[in-house]
Write a structure and sequence with these properties.
By secondary structure, this protein is an alpha+beta fold. It is built from two helices and two strands. The protein has one domain.
C-alpha cells in the first residue's frame, strides 16, 4: 500500500472520532475522563504539525526540503 492510501485511511479514522466522540461520551459517562480525552486529543493531532515536525533536504537534487510530521505514539492511534 502506498503512503497516500495509508494517509486517507488515517484521516477517515480521525473523522469518525471527530464526529462521534462527544456522542459516545454522552452515552457512556464512564469513559468521560481526562485520561480518555487526552488520549483522543493526541490521536487527533497525530501526523500534523501540531506535534512537531522535522525537515530534511532532498537527497535527489539537494534544493528542496521535505517536511515529516511526528506521530503521537499513543495507544489510541492506529
Amino acid at each position: 500500500m502506498n503512503f497516500k492510501g495509508i494517509k486517507s485511511k488515517l484521516l477517515r479514522f480521525k473523522r469518525i472520532f471527530t464526529t462521534n466522540w462527544v456522542i459516545f461520551v454522552s452515552s457512556h459517562p464512564r469513559d468521560d475522563t481526562d485520561y480518555y480525552h487526552s488520549g483522543i486529543a493526541n490521536m487527533l493531532k497525530c501526523g500534523s504539525s501540531k506535534n512537531g515536525f522535522a525537515t530534511y533536504p532532498c537527497l535527489g537534487c539537494g534544493q528542496g526540503q521535505h517536511k515529516v510530521d511526528f506521530s503521537c505514539k499513543g495507544k489510541y492511534c492506529p
